[in-house]
Amino acid sequence: MEKPLALTLGEPAGIGPDIALKAWLRRDELKLPAFYLLGDSACVDRRARALGLCIKLADVDPSRAGAAFADALPVVSTGHAATADPGRPDARSAEAVLASIRHAVADVRAGRAAAVVTNPIAKNVLYRAGFRHPGHTEYLAELATEKGQRPQPVMMLWSPVLAVVPVTIHTALGEVVGQLTTDLIVSTARIVASAMRERFSIQSPRLAVTGLNPHAGEEGTLGKEDQTIVAPAVAILKAEGIAARGPLPADTLFHDAARKTYDCAICMYHDQALIPIKTLAFDEAVNVTLGLSFIRTSPDHGTAFDIAGTGRASPASLIAALRLAARMAEQKPPSSNRR
Fold this sequence. Notes:
Elements: E1 5-8, H1 16-25, E2 35-39, H2 41-50, E3 57-59, H3 62-68, E4 73-77, H4 94-109, E5 116-117, H5 123-128, H6 136-143, E6 154-158, E7 163-166, H7 176-179, H8 182-198, E8 206-210, H9 225-239, E9 243-248, H10 256-259, E10 264-267, H11 270-280, E11 286-290, E12 296-299, H12 316-329, H13 334-337
Parallel strand pairs: 1-2, 1-5, 2-4, 3-4, 5-12, 7-10, 8-9, 8-10
Antiparallel strand pairs: 6-7, 6-11, 11-12
Helix pairs in contact: 8-9
């Protein structure tokens, strides 16, 4: 991979700056791909000093980031100051957060970077500043819109031991049934199957589709949705040649023996997917947005305001996100990867 990765600042009051600095310090030990941080170098320098780290920063443009990476942490300015202190979010820094994301996407789409890697954001802080998207995933979909065509973003949580995808994402539990449709399950699974072939080198991905209700509805006695919504989706996927099974009871799908039977679990709602992977692989899991015209990964954790600036934050998930982004970017072009 010749082009560097574009890493966003994330919420400056959180651990994003901490883990970016720590990841860069381990660049040689772990042979990390080159990356640059999009943000405010003054903010990054303050955090390095707070952590007691002696780190050289290089204010560069993306074209020079790869060359600078060996000796300094490359920082590409977005022109917006991030003034929030560790553990003390400040809505005045919201534009710095959003500008970092916008610039990262623009850099990848313009060919200046290989992929977008995002540090955690604090949605409640952004909401107070006027942000109107449910989360990162939906905002990235807007930025990826071309010629009026908005892509369907699919959130995958990936780890070496488990990959999961929630069909409904940032949706209140009481609203899941109203949003869940056969078409949505089918379109989500199609995107997953395509991405696993094109970006994960799994030529015949096996998808396990969970039921919505306990015991996948127990033949309709615990809810009809699995018979009327989920099962028809699985039938459509099978007819298209996708190796899908379901609806399967979620409570028996994530133990070791069960995980060996599929490559990705397609789950009906947020916590059904995220609880098992965060239990099994909290420090190794990576958030991947599928369905976009560019690669995006992110650590699978939040801003951790309580430990920001203390030195206690682990960069493990960010390191995993950087590595996965580089791995996905190195795959052959999609057209040559199809059977």
